[in-house]
Amino acid sequence: MAVLLLMCGITLYAASGIIGAGAETLSNSYNAAYASEKSLAYQEQYDKYFVKAENNYHVSNRVAISIGDLKEIAKLEVLKVSDVEYIVEDSSDNSNGITSWLEVPGQGTYVVDLQAAEFITDDERAYVKVRAPYPELTNISIDYANVKKMFFKNDILNDSYKVGEELAQRQLNSADMLIKKEFASNERFYLSAQDAAVSTIQCLVRQLNPQNTDMIVEVEFY
């Protein structure tokens, strides 16, 4: 009985040592795993909220693009063009015996109808696209205030005011037709009007959005 009790005591002591060692090992393993998972979970949550905060930050600093009253402008003047025609009529060309040389300046204005334009804005990219009609030549007229009489001679000494007025009007009508023909056929004017329209529209949009220093403004015509 004494031997049995001694053996049982030895066995229990040994078992308690084994269990204690195993428990300690299990505890250490659990603590290490817990710490690792906790670190991973923290990093995952940190990354998620960092991205969210970053997006919110960009959104809060995004500035809305304004086009103001640009779409209300029916005729935006972008370029003024001018031409000078010399109208010569000799006495041999008429029965009045009058020779008259005139220097006749003319002018016209290219305009863009922004009421018919389309404005596409992208606040995220600070980008504006304007689709506008091609520039149109309008207000073609003679600059009467600067018409110059270069030469005038009356061989018959006809002092009739009516005769002189009719001749002058005929010469001015000829000049008006030549000026309109020059404007209509001058491709350089047309291309210059497009370049001027692009620059003018870009400038107006940027002036309305001074806070968007990196804004891109693209203009195309249809």
Description of the molecule:
It is a single chain. By secondary structure, the protein is an alpha+beta fold. It has helices spanning 2-61, 161-185, 187-208; strands at 76-89, 98-112, 118-122, 127-132, 136-142, 148-154, 216-221. A hairpin with a 4-residue loop joins strand 3 and strand 4.
Summary, kept brief:
This protein has 222 residues and is α+β, with helices and mostly antiparallel strands. The chain is 48% helix and 27% strand.
Uncertain stretches: none
Question: In percent terms, what proportion of residues is strand?
Answer: 25-35%
**How many runs of DSSP E, i.e. beta strands?**
7
Helix content percent band: 40-55%
Instruction: Report the span from N to C terminus.
Output: 113 Å
Structural class designation: alpha+beta
SSE arrangement, N to C: HEEEEEEHHE
Number of discrete helical segments: 3
Largest sheet: 4 strands, antiparallel
C-alpha Rg, in Å?
Answer: 45 Å
Mean pLDDT: 84
Shape label: rod-shaped
Topology:
Blueprint: H1 2-61, E1 76-89, E2 98-112, E3 118-122, E4 127-132, E5 136-142, E6 148-154, H2 161-185, H3 187-208, E7 216-221
Parallel strand pairs: 4-7
Antiparallel strand pairs: 1-2, 2-5, 2-6, 3-4
What brief labels describe this structure?
single chain; 222 residues; alpha+beta; 4-stranded antiparallel sheet; 3-stranded mixed sheet
